[in-house]
Design brief:
Elements: E1 4-9, H1 11-17, H2 26-29, H3 38-44, E2 46-54, H4 58-65, H5 69-74, H6 78-95, E3 100-102, H7 106-115, E4 118-125, H8 137-142, E5 145-149, H9 178-190, E6 193-194, H10 201-210, E7 216-217, H11 234-242, E8 246-249, H12 269-282, E9 287-289, H13 308-317, H14 322-341
Parallel strand pairs: 1-2, 2-4, 3-4, 4-5, 5-6, 7-8, 8-9
Helix pairs in contact: 1-6, 7-14
């Protein structure tokens, strides 16, 4: 099976939420539950990907940590939370003893694929840690951030993410603020990838008009097959294709099913169907994987990262040949990252 480079996972969030009970070194001995750890990555042929730094709402932190909402709100500092998750990212790389490597370029990723080392790319999901003057952007870039999604579901200084009910349109709010437009320009100048996956429709089109880079949605699916507001309409897919960009297919059941349910009894053929639809709309060179491991509910057939070989077998059974399989697995990510980053 071809090695799989993946466009999005939330392992760092999980480690941050559980850091009192789960030392980062546990990634290498194996974690209880969840979707990712080193032994399962190796078993599955998972070659690395974009590891998200994400500031969850205080209410979610309170629920996950079993603390009061007041305590979670008091500790809710987006900049500090981002820095703590980035620290975990580098501690994980150091603890790997060479099994994982931090990557800043497409060349770095290619070397990891060749050597069998897990490639780690740092992604910022939601720019809440930055203010409207982009204070701190250079610091994040120096710390290795190579991809930024300006917002998650909620409003911030840069605009509003998709926050609509199922079924629904991605047209859920206003477009980019002036600060959001400045962030897109700054990322273009610094050759940092802009992630469209949590943008509402107006922000998407603002970005498409401003950006000189390929348009990339790291973990989104086809709205025509699943009318989840965060999925992409045919018009959006057309714009991504015209920019020579990419869509990473999300494995979450709520983004796959026509009924939008978070239901484990979802066949892997639902992922295959989104892959086929996106390939038909975008072309073979512009579709990859953006699993959202550790951030969504997976089909039971997938289970966790060890389900990747079963997915690849399902794709092969649907007529996906070896050449397209390799493009989906890693070649297309390498292509678009090289175009975006310039190396």
């Amino acid at each position: 099976m071809a090695p799989v480079f993946d466009g999005h996972n939330d392992l760092l969030l999980r480690l941050w939420l559980e850091q009192q009970q789960t030392p980062v070194e546990s990634v290498f001995s194996g974690l209880d539950g969840g979707h990712l750890d080193y032994p399962r990555m190796r078993q599955a042929g998972f070659a690395g990907g974009l590891f998200a730094v994400f500031v969850p709402p205080a209410r979610y932190v309170a629920q996950q940590r079993g603390i009061s909402l007041a305590a979670a709100q008091e500790a809710h500092c987006p900049l500090r939370i981002c820095q703590q998750q980035i620290d975990l990212f580098y501690r994980m790389a150091a603890a790997s003893q060479g099994k994982m490597a931090v990557c800043h370029s497409a060349r770095d990723i290619a070397q990891c694929l060749q050597s069998g080392t897990i490639a780690l790319v740092l992604h910022l999901e939601g720019a809440d840690a930055l203010d409207g003057t982009l204070t701190g952007l250079e610091t994040f870039i120096r710390r290795g951030v190579r991809s930024i999604g300006p917002f998650w579901n909620l409003p911030n200084a840069f605009g509003e993410g998709v926050n609509g009910a199922f079924p629904g349109s991605p047209d859920t709010g206003p477009g980019l603020t002036e600060a959001g437009k400045a962030l897109v320009r700054a990322c273009n100048q610094q050759r940092i990838m802009i992630d469209l996956s949590h943008m509402n429709e107006r922000a998407f089109w603002d970005t498409a008009a401003l950006s000189n880079a390929p348009l990339v949605a790291t973990h989104s699916n086809a709205h025509a097959l699943c009318p989840q507001p965060r999925n992409l309409t045919d018009a959006q897919l057309c714009a991504i294709a015209a920019s020579d960009g990419l869509v990473g297919v999300n494995f979450g059941t709520a983004f796959l099913r026509a009924d939008g349910q978070r239901n484990g009894k979802t066949a892997l053929t639902k992922i295959v169907r989104h892959v086929e639809y996106l390939v038909a709309k975008l072309g073979e060179d512009r579709v990859a994987f953006g699993s959202d491991f550790d951030g969504i509910s997976l089909p039971d057939e997938m289970g966790d990262v060890t389900g990747l070989p079963r997915l690849m077998a399902a794709l092969a059974a649907a007529g996906i040949d070896k050449s397209l399989s390799e493009k989906l697995a890693w070649r297309n990510w390498l292509r678009v990252l090289k175009m975006t980053w310039g190396d």
